[in-house]
Write a structure and sequence with these properties.
Blueprint lengths: L1 E2 L4 E2 L1 H13 L3 H14 L4 H8 L3 H14 L2 H4 L3
Antiparallel strand pairs: 1-2
Helix pairs in contact: 1-2, 2-4
Length: about 80
């Protein structure tokens, strides 16, 4: 299980995210899944912002939604 200050994710969830990243049908879903996956791999918010060019608050929102709703959070929104 990967963990950091505010985000913990299992290897199974990382594998599931990687699978869905390959299946993402639009840039928005891809970017959201990618950000959560990077966070789950232990990257900091600053590193993810640099890599994805996404606002820090947005990264935090996406990771929180993932924790609350799972992948479904990204499948229902565009």
């Amino acid at each position: 299980m990967k963990t950091n200050r505010y985000f913990t994710i299992t290897k199974e969830h990382l594998d599931e995210l990687a699978h869905h990243l390959k299946l993402a049908k639009n840039v928005t879903s891809y970017r959201r899944i990618q950000a959560v996956m990077l966070r789950g791999e232990g990257k900091t918010i600053v590193e993810i912002v640099s890599f994805t060019q996404t606002a820090p608050r947005t990264i935090t929102t996406w990771t929180q939604r993932y924790l609350e709703e799972g992948l479904q959070a990204f499948m229902t929104k565009n």
